[in-house]
Amino acid sequence: MNIRVFRTPSDAGIYAASILERVVTSKERPVLGLATGGTVIPLYEAFVNLVRCGLDVSHVTTLNLDEYIGLAPDHPQSYRAFMNEHLFSKVGIPAESTHLPNGIASDLAAECERYNAVIRKNPIDIQILGIGVNGHIGFNEPSHTLITGTHVVNLSAETIKMNARFFQNEEEVPRQAITMGVQSILQAKQIILLAFGEHKAEIIREALKDGIRTDVPASILQLHKDVTVILDEQSASHL
Ligand code: GLP
Question: What is the pLDDT, as a whole number, of residue 221?
């Protein structure tokens, strides 16, 4: 694993955006695997700046990791709304080329299959990941088993508590989500994992330095041959 430590999340975001730029300019039909959460905002800000300076993204396809079940795309806390706000509304990726699971699909099993087919049709060139304080990637939560393909997941109490900051209160946080599975993540040709802040320091150490454990889902990234871990000084402080 290539580990890079920056002074600030903003510096780290600029570096991560430059890696994305390389993928976007070197492929005929680049496919970006995208993530949500506070961590990825500096990356999207830097990427939007690159687009404002002339980077063409009209040929880009995007696939997001996950979506809350029960939130319509126009719900302000849906991940579709997050992506619209922080990226899609600011760059010229054609709307039909941006994919997320549908959190209000009436048949969730069919929706998981549909999303697996979208992933198969659009092999991911680079997958962006944040990490939960419990080690989740996407919404692959700590468990005895990790699931390979897209699936419905019950969110852990810790994740519900952590993500409550984006809602009015904890009761409003959906209890379930649809997430890409770990095999889909590992099949990306390249992976960038970002983590910032002291509260991520211990889980980053566990994910990178201990063995592979299903109760630390991010540790499975140790199996991938092209992972860049982008940290600030705080999140790197336990390495
Ligand atoms: C959510 C997302 C994850 C993300 C995590 C960390 O639960 N499903 O993909 O990595 O939060 O969020 P943050 O970056 O806000 O710490």
Answer: 98
Reported ipTM: 0.96
pLDDT digits 0-9 by tens, 180-203 = 999 999 999 999 999 999 999 999
Q: How far apart are CA 35 and CA 37, in angstroms?
A: 7
Question: pTM above the 0.95 mark?
Answer: yes
Identify the residue whose tokens are 């990490």. Answer: 131
Q: Does domain 2-232 correspond to CATH entry 3.40.50.1360?
A: yes
Q: Round to whole Å and give the CA distance between 194 and 221.
A: 13
Residue having the nearest C-alpha atom to atom 4 of ligand 1: 130
Question: Please, what's the b/e burial string for 157-166 (b: 16 or more CB within 10 A of its CB; e: otherwise)?
Answer: eebbebbeee
Q: Domain locations in the chain?
A: 2-232
Q: Is 89 exposed, middle or buried (0-12, 13-18, 19+ CB in 10 A)?
A: exposed
Give Cα separations from 75 to 29, 133, 163 (angstroms). 30, 25, 15
Give the distance, in angstroms, between the CA of residue 163 and the centroid of all CA atoms in the same chain. 14
How far is ligand 1, taken at its centre, from the CA of residue 203, in Å?
13
**Position 192: which residue type?**
I
Q: Is the CB of 122 under 6 A from ligand 1?
A: no
